[in-house]
Amino acid sequence: MTAFELVEPSSLGEALGLLDPDDPAVRPIAGGTALMLMMKTGLYQPRRLVSLRALGRALTMIAATPEGGLDIGAMVRLAQIERSAVVRQAAPVVADTLLTHSNVRVRNVATVGGNLAHGDPHMDLPPVLIALGASVRVVGPNGARDIPVEELITGYRTTVLGNDELIVALRVPSQTGRPAAYAKITARTADDWPALGIAASIGAADVRIAIGAATEIPMRLTQTEALFAGRRIDEALLREAGKCAAAEAPVVGDLHGSAAYKRVLVEVHLRRALQKALDS
Predict the structure, then answer these.
(1) Which CATH class is domain 57-172?
(2) Distances (CA, A) of 145 to 168, 212, 255
(3) What's the average model confidence in pLDDT over 67-85?
(4) Most distant CA pair in the chain: distance in Å?
């Protein structure tokens, strides 16, 4: 690795002031699990890294909202979310998903803000959070804005975030009356990168379905969601939804499986995810 400057600001304002919107060699570092690998392989060579580890308690808290949702600080580690009773009460699918997200060593270090800002479409959390209607609170020199997770990732390791913006919180709305489930299919071990990740959330008036890993970016399958409008969910509808999702999803082949193989996975495992949500 080449030499670089490491700074550790003690406030959010100071951290924002140390970032440079015009210099991609200056960037924040949270847990660093992905960034350090990129640096070791020479894929990324920073001039300055701005550590976010000392920005205050607000970024390390998990709290239930009065409406029954969740506010999770960006510097909360994935293992903390996995073990949180508050998360398991408000959105158990999030805690369950993290049980097989990478391995426990990574989860003990990686943060939720860094995980989402990294923008890797193979991550487990984005499709789950999209199905739950979650958003991130982002702060920059022009103030704060909320971005739905479904709009955050725009390409491989590419997001809508500016170089001088930071995710400060993840916000999950109330999931009361909305059972949800996530299906992760891997080609090797359970904690490997998924060949497919697909999530479903079922409400009284709508169904939200999101896919990741098998597509270039995590996304909702809106045509498949529309099948459920005004219809009773039964086995026939689940099969129809599986076929529709397999046709709608713009799946891509990679080392984890061909596009044809992944279309079969989508058809089978969407049905299973929906049934799991219904049974929960």
Answers:
(1) alpha beta
(2) 10, 24, 37
(3) 98
(4) 61
Give the start-to-end residue ranges of the domains of the chain: 5-51, 57-172, 183-279
* CATH number attached to the domain at 5-51: 3.30.43.10
AA letter at 200? A
pLDDT for residue 1: 66
Task: Give dist(CA 196, CA 199) in Å, integer.
Answer: 10
CATH class of 183-279: alpha beta
- Give the model's pLDDT for residue 29: 95
Whole-angstrom distance, CA of residue 135 vs CA of residue 157: 18
